[in-house]
Structures are given as structure tokens and as C-alpha cells.
Design goal:
The chain is α/β, with parallel strands linked by helices. The chain has eight helices and 16 strands.
Length: about 375
């Protein structure tokens, strides 16, 4: 078992696999095929994951009703049966060896367009996984959608066994107002409004979402993290608004957990956020022994990588939405207590209440909707299956 929050959904395989072994040219394969699987992502996207032992060198082509991924210097795997989820665009997968190149040929139920670069990811080894080439695609415009969206029996067969779970944490609350803008805007009020809107949008998009607080309630940081654990969340998002001694500073920023802050500003922000209940971020003394052992796993590379993966995608989504970014790196790291759990997650500073113009924006319903739309896109694009 890798991590329970990210264990792959187990679907009944359909389709066929065949390995057409062409006359082979002698070569020393530096790479090997480990796994091929498909899944369905929100938005009726089909996901194809090709896992290899070493970093793959690949090319992609699009014959009629096929998707062909050619891997250089890679050997076929005759014992491998791909895992195909019902209702995706892929009906069968074939391996074809030609000299030192291996073709992964996916026969499709409907034609597709060329896959956008943003929908092609190459992930490094993570826990029990090796290198993964991840391709997300949909049917070409005008092509019939997969039967899952129209037929009740097919929908039941193809739907994931559970919805992905997202826990949304509206920072501060109750006796802790968070930062306060010059105009009197309280952080706890802004982030709760955004959290509620985000929950509604993610629920509508097919996710199962929970709020750590739905009213003006004070929660300790450990309680917030524990809610993510209790709900078996796949993703934990903590929403905040920032303040800076410089009234000119503005823009969003995104953070993930690490024991060492990526820069002085990240360290100061973590100190400020953690001061909400003076939690000792250097240890897990407030938890019993079993939970301390579980929480410490977040320091492992695999879970940290999942968090950074989401955070990078979120930063891209914010920038594509033309939301102002705070100067500096796309993603920063610091020992935020609220992120200390076994659930991949990020802390999102939505903007600066200390900046007069941004304070007005953060209060406005239209700007809140813009922020929510960017976060929804980042969650939809997140690699829950890999």
C-alpha cells in the first residue's frame, strides 16, 4: 500500500492487450515498461498513465481513432495486462516492439485532438511508483461522449468507486480574526466566504468536500489538520489572506509544508499563522503516539511531492486567471502547523488585506468568484490517480 489518501482506484479491466513482437534488433534496453493504466478525471477526461523504470524519452502521434506513444530505448513487457477503466475513451491497448522503440497503442472509442502540453505530465518516482507519463484527453469536438454520461447502467459501471475528498480550511475564526485591513476587513470573514463558495463549486464538479468550519468558530490548528485525517481527504486546502509591513505589497502566494522555510518571508508568515494557538511546529507532542507516527510521514518525499505538485498547478491556475501574484517564487515552503498531516495540501494566501486596493478586491463577491474559479481549475487538474 502506498498512501491511503492516494491509493489507486481499482477498476475491473476491460479491453484486450496484445504484444506484437517485431523482429528485434539487438539492443541494450535502458528502460522498461512497468505499468499501463487508465482512469477518468473530473470533466469526463480520460487519463492514460504509462509507468517506466527510468525517465522516458517519448513522442506522441494521433492516427485515426488511436493514440500512439512511442518510447525510445524501451523493452516491451509481455506479462503486463493494462488496467482499463470502464467508460473511458480507451477500449484496448497494444504493445508493439520495433527495434529499440516500444509503441503503446491505445485504440479509442472516439477520435481526439492533439493533447495540449498542459495535459501532459512527466512525474518522477513517488513512493511505490516509478516514472509516470500522464496524458489527459477528451473526445474531439463533435464526437459523441463516452456512454458514461448518457446511460444510467454504464454510468454506474464507469464511475469511480468514490469521489475524491477535498477538505477546505477557512483560516482563523472566532476569537482569532487573523489580519485586519485598514478598512476593517477581517481575514476570518473573507476566507470563510471564499471557502463556502469553493465548497459549492467543487461539490457541483463532482468532488466530496468538507469545511473545517462553516461559521465564526475558533479551531486549533491541530484540530483543522485532524479533520483532514478523519475525512480521509485526498487534498487539504487552507485559505488565508496576508498582511505585509509594506502597504504596496499585493498578490497571492502559495505554500507547502517543510521543516525549513524557503525564505525569510515564508518563515515569518509561518510564525504568524502558527501563532494562532502557539503550536510547537518542531514536534507532534499534542498527539498520541500512533498519530505522531502517522503525521511524521508527511516529511517523506512522496507526500511532500504530492503537495508541491498541487501547489505548482494552483499557482499556474491563478496566473492564467490574471490574478496578481506576490513577487517571488510560484511556490514557497515553511513549517505551517495546519498542513501537518498525512494529507497532501497547500496553504493559499489569497491576497493582502494590508494593501488598500486588494482589501477592496478581497471583499468583493466578483473577485472572490474569480479566486474560487482558479482554485477549482487547479483541483480538477490535480493528479489524484498517480
Amino acid at each position: 500500500m502506498k498512501f491511503t489518501r492516494r491509493t489507486l482506484l481499482k477498476f475491473a479491466g476491460i479491453g484486450t492487450v496484445a504484444i506484437a513482437m517485431m523482429p528485434r534488433v539487438a539492443f541494450a534496453a535502458r528502460n522498461s515498461l512497468r505499468n499501463v493504466r487508465t482512469g477518468i478525471q473530473p470533466g469526463n477526461k480520460t487519463r492514460l498513465v504509462i509507468e517506466t523504470g527510468a525517465r522516458p524519452s517519448y513522442s506522441i502521434s494521433y492516427p485515426t481513432n488511436q493514440l500512439v506513444v512511442t518510447l525510445s530505448n524501451t523493452a516491451a513487457n509481455a506479462s503486463l495486462a493494462p488496467s482499463l477503466v470502464a467508460g473511458s475513451l480507451v477500449r484496448a491497448i497494444t504493445q508493439v516492439q520495433s527495434g529499440d522503440k516500444l509503441q503503446i497503442i491505445a485504440d479509442l472509442n472516439h477520435p481526439i485532438n492533439e493533447i495540449p502540453r498542459d495535459n501532459i505530465l512527466l512525474l518522477t518516482p513517488n513512493g511505490d511508483n516509478d516514472y509516470r507519463l500522464v496524458l489527459d484527453f477528451t473526445a474531439a469536438a463533435g464526437a459523441p461522449v463516452a456512454a458514461t454520461a448518457t446511460s444510467a447502467p454504464s454510468q454506474q459501471a464507469s464511475a469511480p468507486s468514490r469521489k475524491y475528498v477535498v477538505v477546505i480550511d477557512a483560516g482563523h475564526g472566532g476569537k482569532d480574526p487573523g489580519c485586519i485591513g485598514k478598512g476593517g476587513t477581517q481575514e476570518k470573514v473573507v476566507v470563510l466566504a471564499v471557502a463556502k463558495k469553493l465548497k459549492n463549486k467543487l461539490d457541483a464538479a463532482g468532488f466530496q468536500t468538507y469545511l473545517t468550519r462553516s461559521n465564526d468558530t475558533y479551531l486549533k490548528l491541530a484540530q483543522r489538520a485532524a479533520i483532514g485525517e478523519k475525512k480521509h481527504a485526498d487534498l487539504f486546502l487552507s485559505l488565508h489572506a496576508n498582511a505585509n509591513p509594506s502597504r504596496a505589497m499585493q498578490g497571492f502566494s502559495i505554500y507547502t509544508l517543510s521543516e525549513k522555510a524557503s525564505d525569510e518571508e515564508a518563515a515569518k508568515l509561518a510564525d504568524a499563522e502558527n501563532a494562532a494557538d502557539k503550536i510547537d511546529v518542531s514536534g507532534f507532542e499534542q498527539f498520541d503516539k500512533d498519530i505522531r507516527i502517522a503525521l511524521s510521514s508527511l516529511q517523506q518525499h512522496a507526500v511532500a511531492e504530492m503537495s508541491v505538485e498541487y501547489a505548482n498547478g494552483a499557482a499556474s491556475a491563478f496566473k492564467r486567471a490574471k490574478i496578481t501574484q506576490q513577487p517571488g517564487p510560484d511556490v514557497r515552503h515553511a513549517p505551517f502547523a495546519v498542513l501537518r498531516s498525512t494529507v497532501p495540501g497547500a496553504l493559499i494566501e489569497l491576497g493582502h488585506l494590508s494593501n488598500a486596493a486588494e482589501e477592496k478586491l478581497l471583499k468583493s463577491s466578483s473577485h472572490q468568484d474569480k479566486l474560487v474559479a482558479a482554485i477549482v481549475k487547479s483541483v480538477k487538474a490535480y493528479n489524484f490517480d498517480v
